[in-house]
Write a structure and sequence with these properties.
Elements (H helix, E strand, L loop, with lengths): L4 H8 L4 E6 L5 H15 L7 E3 L2 H16 L3 E5 L4 E5 L5 E8 H7 L9 E5 L7 H9 L9 E6 L6 H6 L8 E6 L9 H10 L2 H7 L1
Parallel strand pairs: 1-7, 1-8, 2-5, 2-6, 6-7
Antiparallel strand pairs: 3-4, 4-5
Helix pairs in contact: 2-3
Length: about 210
């Protein structure tokens, strides 16, 4: 999986919690898949969950890409549970489950497990995010000193905005800001066309 320069800068960063504020078509799904597989392969018996706003989003956004990217490393796939089992470099396997945020918000899904790494996609769309993160998901990283990546297109001054500003308060956090222009594979003229069609505020938020 080839990453463009901006994606590489994020992937190479060693901070425990990375917050990525990016425009549409930046390549956040490709980056997320690469990071998920990197952790799953690097650690023995790892558990590396991915969250999207809904379960349908998780399936539509990440399920196919992960399988394609993992290739021959896939040992088992459970489509009904959206779980992928892959070989790691330690001779055993790692689990990659996909969830919708509602599993955390409504059912407290995730309590009692140990995670090596968590990717939370489109975080700005999550309802009651801080409660779910602080009470349910953050404790799952404690035993293994696990990492997390929060990635989203912004949506006003909400909880994602607060996350982005945590790097000024906590040395474990690092924030990144990239626009759609930072993806060299997206034609600039297409972005410029969108700029003409959208209101200035909408364009600034989305791209």
């Amino acid at each position: 999986m080839v990453l463009h320069p901006a994606q590489k800068k994020i992937a190479e960063d060693k901070h425990r919690f990375r917050v990525v504020n990016c425009g549409r078509r930046f390549g956040k799904t490709t980056l997320s898949a690469a990071e998920i597989l990197g952790f799953a392969v690097a650690y023995p018996n790892a558990r590396v969950p991915y969250y999207a706003p809904t379960r349908d989003d998780a399936r539509d956004i990440m399920w196919g890409m992960l399988q394609k990217a993992a290739g021959g490393a896939v040992v088992d796939r459970n489509e009904s549970r959206l779980e992928l089992t892959v070989r790691n470099r330690h001779g055993n396997t790692s689990l990659i489950p996909l969830y919708g945020w509602e599993a955390v918000q409504e059912r407290g899904k995730g309590v009692g497990v140990k995670n090596n790494f968590i990717v939370l996609d489109e975080v700005a769309k999550y309802r009651n995010f801080m409660q779910g993160w602080q009470e349910i998901l953050r404790p799952t990283l404690t035993d293994l000193r696990g990492h997390a990546m929060f990635i989203s297109t912004p949506k006003g001054f909400n909880h994602f905005y607060d996350l982005f500003n945590l790097q000024g308060e906590d040395n474990d956090y690092k924030s990144f800001h990239y626009t759609s222009y930072d993806n060299p594979y997206i034609p600039v003229d297409e972005i410029e066309k969108a700029k003409k069609e959208l209101t200035e505020d909408r364009f600034q938020q989305e791209y």
